[in-house]
Inverse folding.
């Protein structure tokens, strides 16, 4: 008992001395937070951007949707009696584009009286920029010929909405064949699992002999070719 009491007393004394002479907990915590804040985070940020980066198809669809909203907002601003340049500048700020920084030349041209149609055509992305290119042609016709710009913009918006509805219809019809192709591509793996459950040792044959390796490589190649061919046909049909 005396030994245990002496040990507890010694530990208590050591803890008291450490708390009295040791570093301040608040200062230690503050230094840790400062070091974590100053630590470079570019690797994690780059990884996060890479993982959250949308696919080209999704990005193109976002551009098309933003172009429709731009035409609707521009038509509303023109109908309210604003000048074309002011209406376009206000409409650009009201629409959430995938890359707003790339559209700054359009806003500058609209506010400064520059060549808006050329700026629209130059800032339109290769994929999904059909709406901006049509709006550029519409703007050029309205400025050159003097036609009603609000009616032209509304017509462009109606055309873009019709094209978007058609693309969505085609994508819905192609969802079934794509799902079927993926299921068929996964059937060989299911067959291997069933063979393993029946104690047939399929992996020993595939990885343990030359004919098995040949069958494995040929099967993987045919499976990949089938997936690629199905995806290619669906992409061409959707275009």
């Amino acid at each position: 008992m005396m030994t245990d009491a002496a040990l507890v007393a010694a530990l208590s004394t050591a803890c008291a001395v450490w708390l009295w002479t040791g570093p301040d907990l608040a200062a230690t915590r503050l230094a840790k937070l400062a070091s974590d804040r100053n630590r470079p985070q570019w690797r994690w940020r780059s990884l996060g951007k890479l993982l959250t980066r949308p696919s080209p198809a999704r990005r193109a669809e976002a551009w098309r949707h933003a172009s429709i909203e731009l035409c609707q907002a521009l038509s509303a601003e023109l109908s309210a009696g604003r000048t074309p340049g002011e209406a376009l500048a206000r409409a650009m700020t009201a629409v959430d584009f995938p890359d707003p920084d790339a559209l700054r030349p359009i806003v500058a041209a609209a506010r400064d009286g520059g060549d808006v149609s050329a700026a629209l055509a130059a800032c339109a992305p290769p994929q999904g920029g059909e709406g901006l290119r049509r709006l550029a042609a519409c703007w050029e016709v309205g400025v050159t010929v003097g036609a009603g710009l609000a009616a032209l913009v509304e017509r462009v918006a109606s055309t873009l909405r019709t094209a978007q509805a058609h693309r969505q219809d085609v994508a819905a019809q192609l969802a079934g064949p794509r799902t079927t192709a993926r299921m068929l591509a996964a059937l060989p793996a299911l067959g291997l699992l069933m063979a393993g459950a029946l104690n047939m040792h399929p992996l020993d044959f595939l990885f343990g002999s030359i004919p098995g390796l040949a069958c494995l490589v040929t099967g993987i190649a045919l499976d990949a070719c089938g997936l690629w061919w199905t995806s290619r046909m669906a992409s061409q049909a959707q275009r």
